[in-house]
Amino acid sequence: MGRQIPPLSAVRVFEAAARHLNFTRAAEELAMTQAAVSYQVRMIEDRLGTPLFVRTGRRVSLSPAGQRLAPQVSAAFDLLDEAFAKARQTEGGVLTISAAPGVAAGWLGPRLARFQLAKPDIAVRLLASHELVDFARDEVDVGIRIGHGDWPGLRAVELFPAEFTPMCSPAYLERMGPFTDPAQLLDTLRMNSDDIWWRAWFSQVGTAIPDDFTRRSIHVDSQVIEGMAAMAGEGLAMLTPRFWPFELATGRLVQLFPHVGRGGSFWLVYPEHRHNAAKVKAFREWLMGEVAATA
Fold it and tell me: Start and end of every HTH lysR-type domain (predicted)?
């Protein structure tokens, strides 16, 4: 059997009237008219079949039934208030972000301090992983993914294109270069030659690749390590310029050709039902501001 509770709006009016012992003050607190307060109280009395207030002229006091009911109703509203306060704390508590190591270390991580300063009530937990988060299982609020924005059940907000181009250290360029034709890169040592970005870039510049293209390669598990290995002079890396601005500006990395390939975009993703969650909304608005500032 379902709960036999009068409408909560009426119960709320009774609680306020019982607390103030004054219908006018209850009406002011709830932004209602005194007549509306009287109507809601009478609705509960009719359901219970007994009066809750004793009216003497302009004064009201609780009837025996009202005296028994009022403390329990107030205690129930206190529990509700505590529950919603905890929910608000959760919304403003910890924001957990999942992102691939490249975007986490090269773009998002260095900017998170600004978000923390802007939203000091929200703590940030950044998980750098290639694994696609399962929002139904993992305790993650938002993720950053590469693709075309088509993930069922998730809201996807486009951030910026996924761009890539070959880079190396000045020492490696001096030792192996100069490179004037993309085909020359086929004879060099490359990081992660089996990465689809290599094939995409060569295809976009019109260079055919041989069958043994992946033979000469160093395999590492993230763009962060690729970039570090390239700066150490170990070979060529296919990197995202947006993630290495300082290294390019200071000459620690050299972009070998002007062409920058593109394959999909980076997206902010989260479950559809979390779109209006306070901490998700705050992070989304801040993140889009960062994207616009660095466009």
Answer: 6-63
Asked if residues 237 and 168 have their Cβ atoms less than 8 Å apart, the reply is yes
Q: Is the pLDDT of residue 77 over 80?
A: yes
186 φ/ψ sector (left φ>0, alpha ψ -120 to 50, else beta): alpha
Instruction: Copy the structure tokens of residue 206.
Output: 């019109």
What 3-state class would DSSP assign to 140? coil
Instruction: Report the relative pairing of strands 142-147 and 123-128 from DSSP bridges.
Output: unpaired
Report d(CA 99, CA 109) in Å as an integer.
10
Closest CA to 5 of 44, 40, 39, 36: 44
The confidence score (pLDDT) of residue 139 equals 85
Q: Strand runs (DSSP E) across 154-199, as ranges?
A: 154-168, 190-191
What domains can be seen in the chain, in order of their start residue?
A: 8-86 (1.10.10.10), 92-295 (3.40.190.290)
Give the HSE-up count for residue 61: Cα atoms under 13 Å, Cβ half-sphere.
Answer: 4
DSSP 236: B
**Cis peptide preceding 178, ω within 30 of 0:** yes
Reported as a single tens digit per residue, the pLDDT across 210-233 is: 888 887 788 888 899 999 999 999
Q: Residue 135 has what DSSP assignment?
A: T
Q: Name which of 123, 118, 130, 117 is nearest 96 in CA terms.
A: 123
pLDDT tens per residue across span 173-213: 999 989 999 999 998 999 998 889 999 999 999 999 988 88
Q: Among residues 289, 261, 264, which one has the least CA distance to residue 119?
A: 289
CA gap 288, 268 in Å, rounded: 10
